[in-house]
Amino acid sequence: MAVVQCVVDISPKMGLPHASNDWPTNGGDDSGGGVSGGAGIVSVNNLNALAGVGLANLGNTCYQNCVFQCLLNDKHFVSQLSPKSTSTDTNHKVTNGITDDTDEDSIANQFLHLLQSYRSQTCGAIRPEGIRDSMFKRHVTLADGRQHDAQEFLALLLDALNEQLNCYNHLIADIQPPIKKQKVCDTTDGVSPPVSSSLTNSSCVVDVFQGQLCSRVVCDVCHNTSQTFEAFMYLALPLPVVLQKQLVVTFTPLTGPSTRLLITVDNKYDSCVQMKTKVRQKLLLDSISDDQLVIAEASGYHVTRIIDDSEDVLTFNESQSEIHIFQLNESITNMSDCIETDTCVICLEDKPIRCLLRHPGYCAALICESCLEHTIKYYTEDCPQKVFSCFSCHMDVSKNQFTECQPMVERCFCIPLIFRSDSQLVFGIRLLRVTQQMDANALYSLVDSRVFNPEYTYRLLFTERNGIGCCRCAWGSDCEGCEVSRDGFIYLSEADTLCVCLEPMIPLVPSMEITKDESLKELIVEESKKLNLEDCLKAFIANECLNDLDDNLWFCNKCETLRPATKSLHIMSSPKTLIVYLKRFLFVANTCHKLSENVDFPIDKVLDMSELVLNNKKPLLYRLSAIVCHTGTAQTGHYTAYVRDETNDRWLHYNDDLVTCEEPVDSDYRAYILFYNRIEEEQSLVINDNNKK
Length: 693
Known about the structure:
By secondary structure, this protein is an alpha+beta fold. Helix content is 17%, strand content 30%.
């Protein structure tokens, strides 16, 4: 990989202009500094200049530099910045769309200064401080020194350039704003031609980057049609099927065989609650609520992880574990009276919490009634009204101030129940909903209801998740599991696993019965089809159903009520330079995620838009000219750009001030914004003839 040094060789054979009528002799900053110097409007004519000038990073400005590089090397856009003057009236003279009284610090002027310095730079990287400061003045949210979205910055920059380079806007600013969106009256016919707005929106930005879309909504009842025409500077392409995720899930009810089925979640970044809803809908479990279901990952016959409802579907490790959904038993408080106990600070005996007393305040000491009687008798001579000092907090209290303690609300959680015979796990897995403290009889009763045969004799042990070793004893001990007592109260924690250790002489069923659902036939191998740019374009213009299921009905003017409808999007015209960006960043529950899937896009081959543009009768072929890439996550990352150098027939990679000769790949997960230049009709005919041959 060759490296193009920041010191650019400027010579006539490279096509770079020397001092001439087209270029001011003092065009660039000799020191390689900012480009805010110079006066007046800069004219640019020569398009054969050698690319390869880096832009210095001024502090988290890589998102700006990559956008500048793509625009500065766009031949259609730069060719529109040629000098032309038109006298529209006696008061204004317009040059390049900028009146002679325009502020020197405007974004349009600073961009032209940047282009001048870019084409005449002799050494070092350019510091684009002038246009940066102008953008910061216009959009103060960009001036916080943080990393921002390159697509958002591109949209703001094009909007500012369009406004300041718009010849007509300077003449009618006091009359009416430019037309950007037009709504055509409701009709029952097909797509009608839009009303032209070229008179009110005339700039080189519009000429190069603007296309037109038609949004068409058809009522499913009366077939009334509503059309809206809207200009676009770029197309926001979705990544179809990428958000969907197929999961094979095993549902285990309280009784009966388990069922293995296939579900498809619509958004893999959503919480796993949608999985529960999908399973209930698939198996018609209307009587079961989401609260009665728990999701867990299992390997073999033991649970590896119990998944919280707040976790994303993407966190599942389905490649190494199986996904199980268990139906839980009813709340333990409805099955038995769990008695909470605590310790008296005087006699140090464990007693039911309702038999212990405490006085109001910040004292945490608990005392049983008999100890309190002895204390009062000793300190107050058996007079309840007398005050004595608390033995814990030393606060003056009397007997009447001590009140009965209220038991704390028991916290419920789930622990796995596994089965072991001859040191091997058998049967299947169950999950029990328990509390921190349970009566032993209630716990054994719950386990008995999960044993497959009531005639089996067993011992109930505390073990690790895999059934080997003890979760209560110190690590490295030889204990195979501490036995759970059948008397008193059992204290449980979320780290416990209950193991039913069956007698070795009992004949066992080899495995738990599992019923396979018909949905498993719909399982698709994800890598069978790669996602490409044409798929994204077709998904962009695909029909959308507006129905009651998604609470997204459309108000029909003819029916005068909400109706289901079909919405379609049509590309009416495509620009000279087509900008598309892949919707890689997604917000779910106030959290931003990045989609890092590969998308194939043509680099050396042409992009054919002929069939995607409505009523088009001539070839519309595009060639990739630049790529904005993002490396990193949704929270942090770095932007770079690939730009095609047509003069020398090569690709250049711009990483701020570092420029290298590097070919992009046609399936890059980093690709974010793509710039395509339209091929002229004569070239299109040659390409078509070559393809036929």
